Amino acid sequence: MLRVEARARLGAFALDVVLETPAGRCLALAGPSGAGKTSVLRIVAGLLDPRHGRVSCGDEVWLDTAAGIDVPPERRRCGYVFQEYALFPHLRAWQNVAYPLHDLPRRERRRRALELLDRFGVAHLADARPRTLSGGERQRVSVARALARRPAALLLDEPLSALDARTRASAGRELAAVLRDSGVPALLVTHDFTEAALLGDRVGVIDGGRVVQVGTVAELAAAPASTFVADFTGAVVLTGIARPGPDGLTHVALDGGGDVASTEPGDGPVAVSVHPWEIVLTPADTPRSGSAQNHIPVEVTSITAVGNRIRVGLAAPQPLTAEITDASARQLALEPGARAVATWKATATRLLSR
Amino acid sequence: MRVSRRGWFPVLLAAALTVVLSFLTLPIVAIFVDTRPLDLLSSLGEDGALEALRLSLLCSTLAVGLIVVFGTPAAYLLAMSRFRGRATIVTLVELPLVLPPAVAGIGLLAALGPKGLLGGLIQDAGVQLVLTTAGVVLALTFVAAPFYLRQAQSAFEALDRTWLDASRTLGASEARTFLRVAIPTAGPGLISGLALAWGRALGEFGATLMFAGSFRGITQTVPLAIYERFSTDFTGALALSTVLVAVSAALLLSVKLLSGSAWLGGAAR
């Protein structure tokens, strides 16, 4: 369990957060740039000292301003993946990975480094300098380096944002596997909600130095605590396997059951995203009509007013969220437990390979 | 003939460069043109010439060594931290840059001479600085240090701080980060600062003369030897000048080559 409590003055705003994430789980902090996300990671790593704070990982206390404890960064055992990866330019790829292993003999260091590079499929680049590597290769070397010291916690700062769209999908998949297998608590920071949804077991939305809401993606989308969270969470994200259909559309078999169509191309594992305001709810027993292609039977789980709109949480094999007006909600007599059909158009269905 | 379509300004720029280049290289060219190889050999064989060269190399190497050992961590601190009075300290460190060499010599005498501020302490310790080889090293260090410090400070300031942060999170202490990341990545900047300081030390004249005097074999470096010959033996002075130019140029060149070479490779991202 990684626990962070911090209060600090950061330039124009005050940071005030309390967060925790258990071992083997990733908490993704999402928010606009300048929200204080990176500062949280720096406080955990010991690179930034808050005025008041407490950071603990397992039974180690890394920071406790009240008790006068402040463990220096080199003894906190954080695997930190920096935004632009921060590979040392004067060292070869394997030397970068071996850097944290300085107490091992040279031969052993190289062996361990090559092993890690091999795990990420970049062992052939061991002798390359960082400036000759592509973005995706740098990212892999950087993750390998962060894991070299067997960290007690993983900290990732926008790990995918320096990559182009094509590399991002495969790198994201790899990273998800790393987070799953690491067995340590992970804190990931991103400005992109979809990225947070794909990599985080839970997502914390942070704005203006405060954590506005923490929950699973479905919880955040279905019952956003504020209009900021509602706008920021934007799309509902579902996962599934895509295959091109004979009708020119892409058909996605959703994990857990159900099938949706999209006009976007895709093949293999994908993330399907659709905005809550594009989902239409109809009573369960009405015949299908209209031009929309995608129909999923659902059960209403929650109804939350957000400004002049209503967020409706829906249970399906993968949870969904619809956004409707107050008038529609009353007309449909929606209440928790009611059955309905969620409908949306194939043209409103975006696909992202993962 | 048609005037170039690119206009008069590029012509002006080229003309300015031509003037600058001729003015700056003419004296150096003249030294080589006026020196006959035979004179060069005979003057080197002359009493004191080789001695002066040996002394120049020895003292400037020692001075540069002192400058690097003390200057590198000092410049790192100045580059990395923000504290009250930092600007003042930076200015004080750079002050010797604008000090006339004669003033530097007087200053050193007033501080470390027999009747100087610390003169008593130094004499009690049984150390003799004035009119000794140690005095030459001290004078060279004083005059050349700011050249290195300035360069080193800006080289450290230009570093990507996330490299240093990354090093810390990867288990390296502050000291290890300084040695293994900051120094190698700032390498080219440090080396060019070192070249500047060494060049300045090799050519130092005024402060050395005033503080250490000009005794053959003890404090007479090449510039002092040149000055001594200048009134009586112009050919000899010219020959020694040739040697000094050659040594300085070789030094500058090898440093430039070194900073571009493979062991620092990749320091530029």
Proportion of residues in β-strands of chain A: 35-45%
Under CATH, the homologous superfamily of the domain at 56-221 in chain B reads: MetI-like
Widest sheet, order of strands of chain A: 7-8-9-3-10-11
Helix fraction of chain B by DSSP (H/I, runs of at least 4): over 70%
Task: Throw out a few tags for this protein.
heterodimer; A: 354 residues; Rossmann fold; six-stranded mixed sheet; five-stranded antiparallel sheet; B: 269 residues; mainly alpha; MetI-like fold; 13 helices
Give a description of the structure.
The complex is a heterodimer of chains A (354) and B (269). Chain A is of the alpha+beta class and 354 residues long. Chain A has two domains: 2-215, 3-Layer(aba) Sandwich (Rossmann fold), CATH 3.40.50.300; 236-353, Beta Barrel (OB fold (Dihydrolipoamide Acetyltransferase, E2P)). Chain A has helices spanning 37-45, 93-98, 106-119, 135-147, 165-182, 193-199, 217-222, 227-233, 326-331, and strands spanning 2-10, 13-21, 26-30, 52-57, 60-64, 69-70, 78-81, 153-157, 186-190, 202-207, 210-215, 236-244, 250-254, 259-262, 268-274, 280-283, 294-306, 309-315, 320-325, 339-344, 350-353. In chain A, strand 10 and strand 11 form a beta hairpin. In chain A, helix 3 (106-119) packs across helix 4 (135-147) and helix 4 packs parallel to helix 5. Chain A starts with a strand and ends with a strand. The mean pLDDT of chain A is 88. Chain B starts with 7 loop residues before the first helix and ends in a 9-residue tail after the last helix. Chain B has a domain at 56-221: MetI-like fold. Chain B is built from 13 helices and no strands. Classes of the chains: A alpha+beta (354), B mainly alpha (269). The A-B interface holds A 42, 45-47, 72-80, 82-84, 86, 88-91, 99-100, 102, 129-131, 145, 148-149, 155 and B 160, 162-163, 165-173, 176, 180-181, 184-185, 187, 264-269.
